[in-house]
Task: structure prediction
Amino acid sequence: MDKFMERAVELAVKNVQEGGQPYGAVIVKDGKIVAEGVNTLHKTFDVSGHAELLAIRELQQEVKSDDLSAYTMYASGRPCEMCQTAMYFAGLTDIYYCQTLEEAIEAGFPEDSCMTKEDLEHLQQSMKQLPLGTDMTNPLKLWAHLHLK
Amino acid sequence: MDKFMERAVELAVKNVQEGGQPYGAVIVKDGKIVAEGVNTLHKTFDVSGHAELLAIRELQQEVKSDDLSAYTMYASGRPCEMCQTAMYFAGLTDIYYCQTLEEAIEAGFPEDSCMTKEDLEHLQQSMKQLPLGTDMTNPLKLWAHLHLK
Result:
């Protein structure tokens, strides 16, 4: 197995041994690990405490850039849509994962800790749109006015 | 217009005036605003600095719970999939938004700061799976062994 994925899986195992969830991630550049993360949901009330997102945040702060397009992500579990979207915005497109969502469900992971494609679609369909009042400043247009001369 | 959405839009306008992106969010319970957030991408290198996610994190830490199912989200812009997924995991399903992704693109927002359904699908299709080595501890099964007796 790839040594970087081995490390991500090792982090996941260690996190379970410490009372956490079975997820670890490493970010790699030029053959070196530059950031690591594990799932921290057992430690803090913070829905964003996923291994991949924490590794991304650590690295962005370290390199003082939002752009991680030169990096590769190795995640022990298939990244959820939260982490996928974060990777998209960070320009991080070279992504490897090991264990699948199906494996998580098969192992007995609580259903509400996994999100299927249908779950996301259901949530999207349930979101309700309220149009902007005609008397209100339009934030998008104000932004465009200030930034797109 | 709904007073809670008015506040979310007001936060977005204020954030633009302070150099930020046009996104604000408030979380409501029992007719009261209990958390607010604005997009902080202009201030910190942190891809997760979206209005909705920051409001969620603030509230989870305040109420010391991951479960926000009793709350309602008002976001000035349509929540991205990162924030949608965070809401799903937090059990937050009562969601209102004002401005659409199409409005953002029409206003001239940079393409890579918006993510379409196709962008997400493309990223998902490009993710590569590496199976677990037979000699390695399986993190998911270890978790199940410890937690599902």
Observations:
- The beta strands of chain B are 24-29, 32-38, 72-77, 94-99, 128-129.
